């Protein structure tokens, strides 16, 4: 039996850590696991993990939670709350984070178990703990909700192709994080990644920012300047707040997409560019198209591969994980060593609607760091607008979800059959997602996936989707 010297540094940390081998026998079990379960490492190492009872806190009465079957090999991770029942029948509420990894070509699973029964602590259950196993850019996007697993998959798919991607979602939902992940997972990761906020500049400044200009082309153009499209050559350009661009810039952008050439302002020399375009918006672009504000042809060309980010109120179960993540981040930034949050503070956070999504949660924790001198963030450390009932009611009354889904029912006019997808990534969720985007049209879905209709049918049959 292989000994796990590499995990010995986890022996005494204040968080339960265990490692399973491919047969789900325990290969490492630290002291906190012994405390939680009242089972020593001597008793369990080499034995099946089923000896340790995990229960589903959402069931009533509690049903066993088979942590092994939660971890489908294709998903590779779980983040969920569970109840541990020890040998004396004492229950403890915990948060379990687990991930598959490979060691000497053998598949194994490592799990962190945090006791959250008395207080929410940041001890050691954030994704960053797994950084040494997998520091994929996707791991920076925290979320354990089903929609996040789907989001992670779509990011992987998008990074495999050079199709234009449109990221759609409310402010603060991680659109920029998604664009980062797509670029840094793609073949272009060592080339430029240029971000442009399209709403921050006037029309003429944005034009010169994107396309560059030649000396004397307008007052203030003292010398030649290369634009962001040229700077991004070979790499990726991220056009944030794309819904804000003027009709003139829309025409010029359409030309870049169709002909892959640009001209600097004041010059008519064509310059070839090889760029991958990722755009983002928090507006309902379809609506802007209907109102004549956004060109329909441009919309279809940018919206080849739409990705929707999720408002925080729709994945509140991820709040504990996000809180831990931000506490750890600000501990590192400020040198403080805040351990977590009191129950009072945590209840307020869980009850709030977060119109500003994850960014607002992050800001709230940062605010609390300024005030908090104790090991746990308390109610009083949180921003006033989150604590005050009146402001909460006011802020949350206005929260409504954009009907972005309308977009899904519109069929793209451009041919997207050329996007190369890696076949191993064509999973059930991916097929479901693409079918949904295409009005359940299988011919279109097969085309997007780059497989034949028959191959799609076979895959759907295999996944029991008929
Ligand atoms: N799922 C997440 N996991 C970790 N951090 C997140 C997540 N979502 C958002 N954040 C953090 O929240 C902040 C806002 O995210 P980001 O800038 O990507 O949002 P956005 O959708 O681009 O917002 P906007 O539309 O306002 O530009 C960032 O600090 C980001 O790191
Ligand atoms: Mg943004």
Alpha carbon gyration radius: 25 Å
Tally of helical segments: 18
Number of strands: 19
* Fraction of helical residues: 25-40%
**What is the CATH level 1 assignment of the largest domain?**
Alpha Beta
How much of the residues is beta strand, in percent? 15-25%
Structural class: alpha/beta
How many separate domains?
A: 4
Low-confidence segments, given as residue ranges, are 119-134, 405-422
The main pleated sheet reads as: 7 strands, antiparallel
**CATH homologous superfamily label of the largest domain:** P-loop containing nucleotide triphosphate hydrolases
CATH architecture of the largest domain: 3-Layer(aba) Sandwich
- Mean pLDDT score: 82
If you consult CATH, what is the topology of the largest domain?
A: Rossmann fold
* Shape type: globular
Written description of the protein model:
The chain has 466 residues and is of the alpha/beta class. The protein has four domains: 5-118, PAS domain (Beta-Lactamase); 137-145 and 310-407, Orthogonal Bundle (Helicase, Ruva Protein, domain 3), CATH 1.10.8; 163-304, P-loop containing nucleotide triphosphate hydrolases (Rossmann fold); 416-466, Orthogonal Bundle (Arc Repressor Mutant, subunit A), CATH 1.10.10. It is built from 18 helices and 19 strands. The chain has helices at 31-37, 41-44, 67-70, 146-160, 175-185, 203-211, 228-231, 247-259, 285-290, 296-302, 319-334, 343-351, 357-371, 384-387, 389-397, 428-437, 442-449, 453-462, and strands at 16-20, 26-29, 53-56, 63-64, 77-85, 91-103, 106-115, 120-121, 165-168, 193-197, 212-213, 225-226, 236-240, 261-262, 271-272, 276-281, 305-308, 340-341, 376-377. The strands form five sheets. It has a seven-stranded antiparallel sheet. A five-stranded parallel sheet has the order 10-13-16-9-17. It has a three-stranded mixed sheet with strand order 8-18-19. A hairpin with a 2-residue loop joins strand 6 and strand 7 (106-115). Helix 8 packs across helix 10 (296-302) and helix 17 (442-449) packs across helix 18 (453-462). It is globular, with a radius of gyration of 25 Å. It starts with 15 loop residues before the first strand and ends with a helix. Residues 119-134 and 405-422 have low confidence and may be disordered. The structure holds adenosine-5'-triphosphate and magnesium ion. Adenosine-5'-triphosphate is lined by residues 141-143, 169, 171-177, 282, 309, 358-359, 362.
């Amino acid at each position: 039996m292989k000994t796990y010297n590499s995990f010995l540094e986890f022996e005494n940390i204040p968080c339960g850590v265990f490692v399973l081998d491919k047969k789900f026998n325990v290969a490492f079990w630290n002291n906190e696991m012994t405390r939680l379960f009242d089972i020593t490492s001597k008793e369990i190492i080499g034995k099946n993990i089923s000896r340790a009872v995990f229960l589903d806190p959402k069931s009533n009465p509690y049903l066993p939670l088979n942590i092994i079957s939660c971890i489908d090999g294709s998903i590779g991770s779980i983040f969920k709350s569970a109840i541990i029942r020890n040998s004396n029948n004492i229950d403890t509420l915990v948060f379990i984070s687990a991930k598959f990894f490979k060691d000497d070509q053998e598949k194994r699973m490592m799990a962190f178990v945090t006791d959250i029964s008395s207080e929410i602590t940041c001890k050691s259950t954030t994704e960053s703990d797994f950084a040494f196993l997998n520091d994929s850019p996707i791991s920076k996007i925290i979320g354990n909700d089903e929609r996040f697993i789907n989001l992670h998959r779509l990011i992987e798919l998008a990074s495999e192709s050079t199709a234009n991607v449109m990221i759609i979602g409310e402010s603060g939902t991680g659109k920029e994080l998604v664009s980062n992940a797509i670029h840094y997972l793609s073949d272009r990761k060592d080339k430029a990644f240029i971000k442009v906020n399209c709403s921050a500049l006037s029309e003429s400044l944005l034009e010169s920012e994107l396309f560059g200009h030649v000396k004397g082309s307008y007052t203030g153009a003292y010398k030649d300047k290369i634009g962001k499209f040229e700077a991004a050559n070979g790499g990726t350009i991220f056009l944030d707040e794309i819904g804000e661009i003027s009709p003139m810039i829309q025409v010029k952008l359409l030309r870049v997409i169709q002909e892959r050439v640009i001209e600097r302002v004041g010059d008519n020399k064509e310059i070839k560019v090889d760029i991958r375009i990722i755009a983002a918006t928090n507006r309902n672009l379809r609506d802007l198209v209907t109102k004549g504000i956004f060109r329909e042809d441009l919309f279809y060309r940018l919206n080849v591969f739409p990705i929707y980010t999720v408002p925080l109120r729709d994945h509140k179960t991820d709040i504990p994980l996000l809180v831990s993540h931000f506490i750890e981040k600000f501990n590192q930034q400020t040198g403080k060593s805040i351990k977590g949050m009191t129950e009072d503070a945590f209840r307020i956070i869980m009850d709030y609607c977060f119109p500003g999504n994850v960014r607002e949660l992050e800001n709230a924790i940062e605010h609390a760091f300024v005030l908090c001198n104790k090991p746990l963030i308390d109610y009083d450390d949180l921003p006033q607008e989150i604590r005050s009932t009146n402001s909460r009611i006011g802020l949350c009354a206005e929260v409504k979800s954009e009907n972005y889904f309308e977009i899904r029912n519109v069929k793209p006019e451009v041919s997207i059959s050329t996007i190369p997808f890696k076949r191993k990534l064509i999973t059930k969720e991916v097929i479901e997602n693409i079918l949904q985007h295409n009005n359940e049209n299988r011919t279109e879905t097969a085309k997007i996936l780059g497989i034949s209709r028959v191959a799609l049918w076979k895959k759907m049959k295999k996944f029991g989707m008929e």
